[in-house]
Amino acid sequence: MGPGFGVWTPEPPERLNRCTIGELPIRRADGSRRHGGVRGRMTERVVGRTRFVVVDGDITKESVDAIVNAANQSLLGGGGVDGAIHRAGGPAILADCETLGGCATGDAKVTTAGRLQAKKVIHTVGPRYHGRDEDAALLASCYRTSLVRAREQELRRIAFPAVSTGIYGYPIEEATRIALATCADVVREHPEAYDEIRFVCFGASDAAVYRHRLALLDV
Ligand code: ADP
Q1: Which CA distances in Å does 188 have to 47, 51, 112, 176, 213?
Q2: 64, 66, 138, 158 from 119: Cα distances, Å
Q3: Ligand 1 atom with the shortest distance to the CA of 85
Q4: In angstroms, rounded to a whole number, what is the distance separating the alpha carbons of residues 36 and 25?
Q5: What is this structure's pTM?
Q6: 113 within 8 A of 67, measured Cβ to Cβ
Q7: Atom of ligand 1 nearest to the CA of 59
Q8: CA-CA distance, 75 to 123, in Å (whole number)?
Q9: What domains lie within the chain, and their CATH numbers?
Q10: Taking 90 as the threshold, does the pLDDT of residue 63 lie above it?
Q11: Which residues, 6+ apart, have CB-to-CB distance to 22 below 8 Å?
């Protein structure tokens, strides 16, 4: 058997980053990696010491330490995921929000989660998309600041929606790239702080974009 035709073996468990069927990463018996064809879509990956998971579903059902809300600057409720979180969590969330004096775009503030299974809600305000450079910086700031707030309160499992990609019009591909790259940067800076980050997509097409981007992420 010539070079490059070694026996293929599955990834050892400690290196396994879970993929969709048919995309299992494999390595040669001599330890070298097979390149090409394995980077399709991934549902779960470990970045540093933190599990990144892509989920297709309703974020209000997540039983994590904190769910992130894509709120508006008033923090007094809105449509989309914001409306869903207030409806499912009940009036205690709004009561808490009313004490906070709003929230600037790119910033994040923490409230009770009311009746939700999550312990806390982290409200962040994404930018309305105008195609300006500052949009990307503000969206990155939403993810980074939300993770700072989580760390401050020792919230180790966090679920994010696709901030700004609904009513605020951010293109899903670009928003996903920013979301994953920013979260990856933060967990590399603070590998001890986070057990799991869940990216909760509302619908299969957004989830497919996230899974593709997760597969492209350098870990
Ligand atoms: P924004 O104003 O920041 O764009 P939206 O709530 O309009 O906020 O949309 C943000 C994302 O949240 C969109 O991808 C939308 O499809 C999604 N979304 C809406 N409801 C839910 C929900 N219950 N769970 C998870 N994601 C949701």
Answers
A1: 7, 12, 28, 18, 18
A2: 7, 6, 26, 10
A3: 23
A4: 10
A5: 0.86
A6: yes
A7: 24
A8: 8
A9: 59-216 (3.40.220.10)
A10: yes
A11: 40
Q: What is the maximum span of the chain, computed from C-alpha positions, in angstroms? A: 71
Angle in degrees, 0-180, between the axes of helices 133-152 and 172-189, rounded to the nearest 10: 40
Residues 6+ apart with CB under 8 A from 132: none
| HSE-CB of 44 using CA atoms within 13 angstroms | 11
Q: Supply the residue whose CA is at minimum distance from atom 18 of ligand 1.
A: 81
Centroid of chain to Cα 70: 12
Kindly give the distance from the C-alpha atom of residue 81 to the centroid of ligand 1, in angstroms, as a whole number: 4
Dist. CA 163 → ligand 1 center (Å): 7
Which of the residues are catalytic? Answer: 82
| Banded model confidence at residue 9, pLDDT cuts 50, 70, 90 | very low
* Ligand 1 cavity residues, CB under 6 Å: 58-60, 70, 80-82, 84, 126, 161-168, 200, 202, 206
Residue nearest to atom 16 of ligand 1 (CA): 202
Arithmetic mean of pLDDT, 91-108:
98
**C-alpha atoms less than 13 angstroms from C-alpha of 101 in its C-beta half-sphere:** 0
Q: Residue type at 168?
A: Y
Best of 81, 135, 165 for a ligand 1 pocket test (most atoms within 8 Å of beta carbon)? 81
> Mean pLDDT, to the nearest integer, of 92-109?
98
| Ligand 1 pocket mutation, candidates 54, 124, 202, criterion most atoms within 8 A of CB | 202
Contact 68, 160 (CB under 8 A): yes
